[in-house]
Design a protein that fits this description.
By secondary structure, this protein is α+β, with helices and mostly antiparallel strands. The protein has 15 helices and eight strands.
């Protein structure tokens, strides 16, 4: 019966550990992540201490340590939870902190052994051998943790292709695979430093698989019920408004740094200015063709005035999707501003670039608009490197002139890039 009691006690330890740490994680908006990180660090010492000296017997002859089964497995699953709710930049902070702290512990223990010690009693002498063993295990364990966290995050993200948005199987599979690797790697160090035998390896693995299942359930419940707003929220207080504005500013800053347009998902103008110039320069230097397509949605202001800006935003998203679908996989689509888009197509010029413009024009014209007044069309100017120009600014200027020519000729048409023969730009008109 004592073996089954140990199972219940381990499960109780795991629930207590998870609930306490998850509560600190949930409170990060009020007290910050420092409390969560500090608690995790304190438990890291206890985890290593227990893994080196304290083992319990479970049914079927399984031998395991609460330090490894409960605390280490829980820590890894909580770090994955932190990644899910925050990001990789945040989750690396406690990992680096633990690794540096453990190396520091090992180094200070080495220095302190050279002190001249004053004994406090016959049975209270400093055990530097045990401290060395603890320090070695902590450094080894944290080094493994570094790889564990990378692997479990990659597996969790990869498992979306297998399980979609079902969190529990993703947590279960990624946790089981990584902790199998971890058990073998940590046992190697444990065996070298403490002489632990094969039953510890096998028993620890079985116990960790059970712990992964339990933590997977707890993490799924947490994500479903405690990380979502519950019920109808009251009107925001004035400081909540400032919080909202702050987070909006951070969100827009993130979009600016990642180079994506918030509404359409296309790349933004800043990305065009940096990448476009570089792409044209590289193509010109290599003697490789490149096409720049400048696209303007015809009479889009009238569309917004008639149907509203919300409908206009939806239509811009659909237009962007059609442009990306009509373009090649290797082409880059940018939102230049308002209802203007730019496509950079490396490796094509002349007739091929004109054909790309025509595909995009047709795709936009084919979008359903509910009624005739809701249909949209596009005018497109195409310029190619190096037939038209070898520099970004000049290439863009030529494409812009051809765009305005398309508008002057009645819109919903493509004024194409100059063919290599030196003939006049091709005019591709609607059917």
């Amino acid at each position: 019966m004592s073996e089954f009691t140990n199972v219940l006690l381990l499960a109780g330890d795991a629930v207590l550990y998870f609930v306490a740490l998850a509560a600190l994680l949930r409170a990060r908006g009020r007290i910050g992540l420092g409390a969560f990180f500090c608690a995790l660090g304190v438990m890291h010492f206890l985890e290593t201490y227990l893994a080196s000296i304290l083992y319990v017997a479970l049914p079927l002859g399984i031998v395991t340590s609460p330090g490894s089964t409960v605390l280490f497995t829980g820590k890894l699953m909580l770090l994955l939870l932190l990644y899910i709710r925050e990001d990789a930049v945040v989750v690396r902070q406690p990992i680096y902190g633990l690794l540096i702290g453990n190396v520091l512990l090992f180094a200070l223990a080495y220095v302190m052994r050279h002190h001249t010690l004053i004994p406090l009693g016959a049975e209270r002498a400093a055990d530097f051998g045990f401290l060395d063993q603890m320090g070695g295990l902590m450094v080894w364990g944290t080094a493994i943790l570094f790889f564990d966290c990378i692997l479990i995050i990659l597996l969790y993200e990869r498992s979306r292709a297998w399980f979609g948005d079902h969190v529990f199987p993703r947590l279960l599979v990624s946790g089981a695979l990584v902790l199998t690797f971890d058990q073998v790697a940590f046992f190697f160090g444990l065996n070298m430093l403490t002489g632990a035998g094969l039953p510890v390896l096998i028993g620890g693995w079985v116990a960790k698989m059970g712990a992964v299942a339990l933590y997977g359930v707890l993490a799924t419940v947490y994500l479903k019920y405690f990380e979502r707003p519950l019920g109808r929220r009251a009107a925001p207080r004035i400081w909540d408004v400032f919080d909202t504005l702050t987070y909006r500013e951070r969100y827009e800053d993130l979009l600016a740094r990642t180079g994506c347009d918030a509404l359409t998902g296309a790349l933004d103008r800043h990305s065009l200015e940096s990448y476009g110039r570089r792409a044209v320069e590289n193509a010109a230097a290599a003697g490789r063709p490149l096409a720049l397509l400048l696209i303007d949605i015809d009479h889009f202001k009238a569309f917004n005035d008639r149907f509203g800006h919300a409908a206009g935003d939806i239509m811009l998203k659909r237009i962007t999707a059609e442009i990306m679908t009509a373009a090649r996989v290797s082409d880059f689509t940018y939102r230049f501003g308002g209802e203007e888009f730019v496509v950079l197509a490396d490796g094509i010029a002349g007739d091929d670039a004109n054909a790309l413009g025509e595909r995009i024009r047709r795709a936009i014209a084919a979008l359903p608009g509910g009624d005739p007044a809701g249909r949209v069309t596009a005018s497109i100017g195409v310029a190619s490197c190096a037939n038209d120009a070898s520099g970004y600014d000049r290439l863009f200027e030529i494409a812009d002139k051809r765009l305005y020519e398309a508008k002057a000729l009645g819109r919903n048409r493509v004024i194409g890039a100059r063919p290599p023969t030196g003939e006049s730009p091709v005019r591709l008109v609607k059917n």
